[in-house]
Amino acid sequence: MTAVRTGPEVAARVAADQLRALPGEPEALACDIDWAGPVERELPDEQAVQAACGIMHVHGRAAGRPRRLGVDYASTLAGVLAAQGVLAASLARARGARFSSVRTSVAEAALLSVQQYLAVATTDDDWVETWQAGGRPPFTSRDGVRFELEVLHAEGWLRFWAELGADSGAVADGWWPFQQRFATAAANLPEALHRALREVDYGTVASVAASAGVSVLPVRDDPAPPAAVPACAFRALPGTARFAQRRGVAPLDGIVVVESTRRIQGPLVGHLLRMLGAEVVRVEPPGGDAMRGVPPMSGDCSARFRALNDGKRTVELDVKSPSGRRELCELVADADAFVHNWAPGKAAQLALDAGDLARVSPGLVYAWSSGWEPLRWPEPPVGTDFLVQAHSGLAAAVQSADEPSAPSLMTLTDVLGGAVSAMGVLAALLHRQRTGEGVRVDSSLFSSAGVVPRPPRRSVLDQPLRTSDGFAVLSGTDPARLAAALGTAPDTVPERLRQRPSGFWAAELSEVETVVTPVCTDLRQLAADPRFAAALGRDTHAFPLAPWEFS
């Protein structure tokens, strides 16, 4: 059994729990997780990592100031990355490699979680992204129900608000920030839209939404998930694999993955597998993925798109046409794994479900990354990040004790969902290597949300505190001892810290073993900081390097 030898408690526990639950029987490897990894900063805990690596900045955009995520998100993601590393090294050993250990860090996980925001901030394009704090969902109905709303097309947005009698100018003004909240982590919607929903009961909202093709869900105040589900579900597929020959030094060298994915969750699966050495063939519609042209540009392609898709080989085909499906089957016939995040039912409709492709490629690993599996709904809502946070309890867990439940507008489950799916693919590939059996892997945004431990809701002192030149977080000292060192009462510590810059407090409080971490509020400065040089690469934008070391 793999030993997680060192590491933050949450990350080590997540890695161990996931490895126990997965098939494939990982090798007895040594696995080390630390806080900072190659980042040359003293980062003693989760809040220091969130502060230094941009998570507090991105999560806090909607509020207009950096905010801590109330869960140990970076540690959770690091645990999943560690499990991926163990599975990848085990697969490589089964194919003749001699890896004995794997290492990753919470800081590298944090940088991976903000990679799209980092790409946008550091691109050479003159286009400037803007966002405004405030005005964000959730909405509140007349009968006091707080709820999230999702619609992916402007037609549904217009029909919904028109039926509720909302001001047409506010409806038009609100569409852009609503649509862009996945990209900007902010959504300053006109007050008129919030007011329109405060004037009707939730039952009316739900009825109008259903007729307009809009999804709404109440925001749960209980942080615990409403159902306990495994991160990934596995089912055997027929056929015997033809094992890929290992050609290079990376763990997945010689493995071929075909993906047909969009947005964040699906492309991230292939991105992680590519960083582990797999050849990833990306299937796009004729003319290419429309997201390639979304500004800002990095070189001749969207910075956001490149953050998740650089290094993949692209093939354009129309899966809705018979000839396009034949082409896809030809690609899959020579592949080890196929990954998609199509809408529920689409694979069966196209005759490209697991059973169909297993006949084309015996021993195939077939992975579907969805929104809600394995939950069953009479009328399923669209499976997107913020609805999943609302229903899974994560929206309650990420906010501090003095704040109402609300999803983070940072795409938490999209990123974690992609990482969980990649972990499932690796486990299935290892099982196939050992048995020759093909495997279907099902995971979802909802199942990934359940991987995040739910601690007690945090107090105000766990949030970034304002100093005279920005914000900082304090690690290592209990509140009473800290207050004594500052010569003040515990409840006036925040006011005392405002009087001096972060650097002053870092020197002053080191005598009481308190680590002061200034909060990153500009991702461009983070990318330019030489202390991050070993964790980041640079092309026409900055990007995180592979977050594993194998030896």
Automatic annotation (TrEMBL):
InterPro entries: CoA-transferase_III, CoA-Trfase_fam_III, CoA-Trfase_III_dom_1_sf. Signal peptide: none annotated. Keywords: Transferase. Gene3D superfamilies: Crotonobetainyl-coa:carnitine coa-transferase, domain 1. The keyword Transferase applies. It comes from the Bacteria. GO terms for molecular function: transferase activity. The keyword Flavoprotein does not apply. Pfam families: CoA_transf_3 (PF02515). This is Crotonobetainyl-CoA:carnitine CoA-transferase CaiB. It comes from Saccharopolyspora antimicrobica.
